[in-house]
């Protein structure tokens, strides 16, 4: 998740699996954490809530009732950390569910093969985007 090229490939995989909203939510939470302006924090938090938490959203992420309640309480006074519990739950879901499927996918194997070819002499710069960089970091 830390490597932009790896994130891009994983996001494409999620898009094909109709679960791209998990990555988009995770990225939106990361952006919120960088915000320092209280007015913008509230605005971004409401946007994230409406886009990914609201049961009316077509991009709603799957959260358990405990985490959903925490987020609802946090939304009374949003901060950069309003979605921390939800973000962790979605990260864990991607790490345990989507990522193992990604590693076994044709897309991943194709990228790994390209990386192996580039390492064996024809340096096309693909090792910069190697499969090892696509891995989600262990927590």
UniProtKB/TrEMBL annotation:
Entry-linked Pfam families: RGS
Domain (RGS): residue spans on this chain: 1-112
Region (Disordered), start-end ranges: 118-139
Stored InterPro entries: RGS, RGS_sf, RGS_subdom1/3, RGS_subdomain_2
Protein's recorded name: RGS domain-containing protein
Originating organism: Rhynocoris fuscipes
Taxonomic lineage of the native organism: Eukaryota, Metazoa, Ecdysozoa, Arthropoda, Hexapoda
């Amino acid at each position: 998740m830390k490597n932009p090229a790896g994130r891009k490939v994983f996001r494409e995989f999620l898009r094909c699996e109709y679960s791209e909203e998990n990555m988009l939510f995770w990225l939106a939470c990361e952006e919120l954490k960088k915000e320092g302006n209280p007015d913008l924090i509230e605005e971004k938090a409401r946007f994230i809530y409406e886009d990914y938490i609201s049961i009316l959203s077509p991009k709603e992420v799957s959260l358990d009732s405990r985490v959903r309640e925490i987020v609802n309480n946090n939304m009374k006074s949003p901060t950069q950390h309003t979605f921390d519990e939800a973000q962790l739950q979605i990260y864990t879901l991607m790490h345990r569910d989507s990522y193992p499927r990604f590693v076994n996918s044709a897309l991943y194997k194709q990228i790994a093969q390209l990386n192996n070819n580039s390492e064996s002499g024809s340096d096309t710069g693909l090792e910069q985007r190697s499969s090892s960089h696509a891995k989600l970091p262990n927590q």
